Each structure stands twice: as C-alpha cells, then as structure tokens.
TrEMBL record:
This is Toluene-4-sulfonate monooxygenase system iron-sulfur subunit TsaM1. It comes from Pigmentiphaga humi. Pfam families: Rieske, VanA_C. Residues 1-101 form the Rieske domain. It comes from the Bacteria. Keywords: 2Fe-2S, Iron, Iron-sulfur, Metal-binding, Monooxygenase, Oxidoreductase. InterPro entries: Cholesterol_7-desaturase, Rieske_2Fe-2S, Rieske_2Fe-2S_sf, VanA_C_cat. GO terms for molecular function: 2 iron, 2 sulfur cluster binding; metal ion binding; monooxygenase activity. Its EC number is 1.14.14.-.
Length: 345
C-alpha cells in the first residue's frame, strides 16, 4: 500500500492473501501490521482505537496491545495476561513511498525489494498521482496482461496502441526471478498517450515499451518515444510502477504511479498539475475501464473451464516465463512448509 495513505491515528484494515490484516502507525510514526483479530474473542482490532501511548486497544473488551503484537494491559480482574495473548506481527518496510510486507514465515530480506527509487522524493523525477485500483481478478492474470504488451493495439486502441504498433521487434531477458520484455516499434503513428508525452503533433515516431517483472508481483514499465532517424537518447516517455497485492483468489489491489522521463518530455500550456492529472486519468482508463473488464471476464471463463489449457503463441513467451517462476517458488515453499510440519513432534 502507499505509505502516504497510512496516516497517524488511522487504523487501516486490509485483506491480503485471504488474511485480514490491520495497518497503523505507532507513537513514533513507524508503520506496523498485525493480524486483525484480538486473541480473546477474535473480534477485529480494526474496530478498536489507537491510544496516545501508541497501544492498540480492542474495541470489545479493552485489551491493549503494543506494536509488537503483545498484550500489555488487561483492564479486568487481577489484570493477568496469559502468555498466548498476543497478535502476530508482520515485518513491514517503508521504502519508495510504499509499504512492503512479508506474509510468510521465512526470514524477511529487505534487500529483495525491487528498485522503484524513481518514486522517492529525492529521485529528481516528478511523479504523478499515486493511484490504488481494486481489480476483480487473480493477480496472476494481471501479470499475464502486463507482461503481454502486444494487447495494447486491441484492448487500448488509439490510447496505448493502434494497428501500426501490432508488429514489433521483441526482446526477452531473464535474470534469476526477474523477467523483462521489450517491444520496439519504428516509424508508426503514435497513440494518444505517447503523442501527449512527446511533441503533441501526431507525427510518426519510433517507440519502445519495456516492462520488468520481479517475483512475485512487482512490475516496472519503461516507455519512450523519439523521432525516426533521431538519436534515441532524445526521447520522451514514462516510468511506471505496477505493484499487485493479492487480496483473495478473485481480487487484487493494484498500486500504480508514473513519472515523465527523457529530455523531450512535453509540458502542457494549461499547467503541469492539470497535465499530470490528465495523464493519470488516461492510465486509469486503460487499467480500470479497459483491462479490468476483460481480465474479470477471462477469469470467469477460467473458473468455468478448469481443465482447459490456453493455446500459446510467440507473444506469450514472457508471461509463460513469469508463471513458471511463480510455480517453482510456490512449489518450493509448499515443500518447505510440509517438511517443517512433518518434523514437528
């Protein structure tokens, strides 16, 4: 979730991986994430309140918990606190204006957080509005959508692609648990968003569209536009983040933001603030009004026909690599959990 959305004195309940969680900031402003369930009567802690000392008070019987999840006060009777009266706390790291959580039981590794430093306040990039979109689809379908850049000509006609951008030179690279796909399209009519970011004259252009996926669900989009026969370094484009947080098997929170890049990035005569708002609205239109209905309908078909395997084409190479990596990581984790359970007395 966006760090800015977690304001002081605010309790934010959020479903992640079918698990109700509670996010808040302690008295020092440090973000914390706990299971949203009091161990006493299993009431949601999000229906309680934050106290001035930073403790979280259950709204049902007044038990108080510190930010580690430990119960520190029982206002009833002798005040005795059973050892089991604690709430699980999740490791949470605030970086790149985002909150990154470790829902599993492995040792957290902050070094595994992908590089989204262009979002940082001191990055030098002028980042547009940070948006959150709830999409009614499994996160893996959204990964397929984002890593299959060829769909822009059909699902986003004239906004992100057109009939001239169907054909492209495609390059795919894989390094560890990261996959990157790039499409280069030369001497084409620019779609609306590319034209707005470039010279706004409708003249033919060369374009690239590159997206990097880092397991399990963080993607960085790098797009650029430049004049045919010109130096590609003289371009205008965007960097865009696409962070997917699975809520349930059928819903995903989509965190996205973009920043202009390149020496020829356009500025609007109507004002930069309005220009950034328009770009952000066009991006939301593509994701929520065009991608979401298609992916949602696709997921319904997938559920109705569980035994049907998709017929794959060359354009599916990058999504397939991502899904294979995910399958391997999930299988590895399941084996690790099974082994640990079998070793328990």
């Amino acid at each position: 979730m966006w760090a800015e959305s977690l304001k002081p004195d605010l309790l934010v309940p959020l479903m992640i991986l079918e698990q109700p969680l509670l996010f808040y900031r302690d008295q020092y402003g440090v973000a914390a994430a706990l299971d949203d369930m009091c161990p006493h009567r299993l009431a949601p802690l999000s229906l309680g309140r934050l106290l001035p000392n930073g403790n979280l008070q259950c709204g049902y019987h007044g038990l108080e918990f510190d930010s580690s999840g430990q119960c520190v006060r029982n206002p009833h009777g002798s005040g005795r606190i059973p050892r089991a009266c604690a709430v699980h706390r999740y490791t949470l790291v605030e970086r790149h204006r985002l909150l990154w959580i470790w829902p599993g039981d492995e040792t957290p590794d902050p070094g595994a957080i992908p590089d989204f430093s262009f979002l940082d306040e001191d990055s030098g990039y002028d980042v547009g509005p940070r948006d959150t979109i709830r999409m009614d689809s499994n996160y893996r379908n959204i990964i397929d959508n984002l890593m299959d850049l060829s769909h822009a000509s059909f699902l986003h006609p004239d906004l992100l692609g057109n009939e001239e951008t169907i054909q492209a030179r495609i390059d795919i690279k894989q390094e560890g648990n990261s996959v990157q796909v790039r499409r280069d399209m030369n001497d084409v009519r620019p779609p609306l968003l590319r034209d707005l970011l470039f010279k706004q004259d409708g003249a033919r252009v060369n374009m690239w569209n590159s997206i990097r996926w880092d397991a399990p669900s963080a993607l960085l989009n790098d797009v650029g536009t430049y004049a045919p026969e010109a130096d590609p370094a003289q371009f205008a484009g965007q960097l865009g983040c696409h962070i997917l947080t699975p809520q349930t098997a059928d819903t995903t929170l989509y965190f996205t933001a973009a920043a202009k890049q390149g020496p020829l990035a356009s500025r609007s005569a109507d004002g930069e603030v309005d220009f950034k708002a328009r770009i952000a609205e066009l991006r939301r239109t593509a994701f929520k009004d065009q991608d979401d209905p298609m992916i949602r309908a696709q997921q319904i078909n997938i559920r109705l026909h569980p035994g049907v395997r998709p017929v794959l084409f060359e354009i599916d190479a990058a999504p397939v690599r991502c899904q294979r990596i995910l399958n391997a990581l999930i299988e590895e984790e399941q084996k690790r959990v099974s082994s640990r359970i079998s070793e328990e007395p």
